Amino acid sequence: MTTSMVTGATGGIGSAVVRALAGRGDRVIALGRDPGRLAGSAALPGVTARAVDLRDLAALPATLDGVTGLDALVHCAGTAPVAAVADSPAALWEEVLAVNLVAAAELTRLALPALRARRGHAVFVNAAPGVHGVPGWSAYTAAKAGLRELADALRAEEAGNGVRVTSVYPAGTATELLRRTRAAFGRDYDPDACIRPETVAAAIRDVLSLPPDAQVGEVTLHPGP
Fold first, then answer.
1. Nearest 5°: phi and psi at 123?
2. At 72, is the secondary structure helix, strand, or coil?
3. Distance between CA atoms of 40 and 84, rounded to whole angstroms?
4. What is the DSSP letter of 64?
5. What is the DSSP code (8-state) at residue 212?
6. Which of 10, 17, 25, 134 has CB atoms 3.0–4.6 Å from 37's, for a disulfide?
7. Coil, helix or strand for 63?
């Protein structure tokens, strides 16, 4: 049976990815910070929910307890506070970098033996295409730029071990996180004008289903016409 691990499993995209992978018959390990919100995922066939706070790097090794082979590791977790540099203390930077970048790097490092054992696949859900240098969003965009570099380096480093790496860049997706973010920027949020989380999850599922003779390095998703 295919084994997949998904971070940010209580978020809009993460929970959709859990449903999509469980729907194709995967054994899914769903990681999220809130045990109560994980209950919905845990009720799905084949899904094991593990509560973990990605800000606590020392807690990450326990998420891999009993996992000897891993076919997919999908990083969906993210936090995106809106704050100018002048209003962003070190604690804000530490949290944003920890959740969006450092935890992804550390969990990937810990999972590499299991990914190599199955010639598995790491997927990193990044920012919307073209997002960089946004006033009021420096911590988030810096973390996501680092996530891109992490994915690109990992792809080159692990090619010889058969591990594939994909970065996914979805445009505005109808999630609670996007609603809060646009509200913080004073912008309207219309979920009907956004990509559905299930559509992003379907794209990730399809990337993971690709035969092993090829890999997709990057996926960019825009709203349909």
1. -120, 130
2. strand
3. 36
4. G
5. T
6. 10
7. helix
pLDDT tens by residue, 93-139: 999 999 999 999 999 999 999 999 999 999 999 999 999 999 999 99
Amino acid identity of residue 183, one-letter, is A
In CATH, 3-221 is 3.40.47.10: no
Q: Is 154 left (phi over 0), alpha (psi -120 to 50) or beta?
A: alpha
Task: Kindly write down the DSSP assignment for every residue of 73-134, as one continuous string.
Answer: EEE-------B-GGG--HHHHHHHHIIIIIHHHHHHHHHHHHHHHHT-EEEEE--STT--S-
Concatenated DSSP letters of 3-23: EEEEESTTSHHHHHHHHHHHH
Residue whose C-alpha is closest to residue 13's, from 202, 139, 183, 222: 202
How far apart CA 173 and CA 178 sit, in angstroms, is: 7
**Residue carrying the six token digits 């973390």:** 143
8 vs 78: CA distance, rounded Å: 7
Please report which confidence band the pLDDT of residue 225 belongs to, taking 50, 70 and 90 as the band edges. confident
Give the Cα separation of 157 and 150 in Å (integer). 10
DSSP annotation of 62: G
- Do 203 and 152 contact (CB within 8 A), yes or no? no
Torsions phi, psi for 221 (to 5 deg): -115, 125
Q: Residue ranges per domain, the chain?
A: 3-221
- Let me know how many helices (H) and strands (E) the chain has, helices first: 7, 7
Q: How far apart, in whole angstroms, are the C-alpha atoms of residue 149 and residue 141?
A: 12
* pTM of the complete model: 0.96
Residue at 187: amino acid letter: R
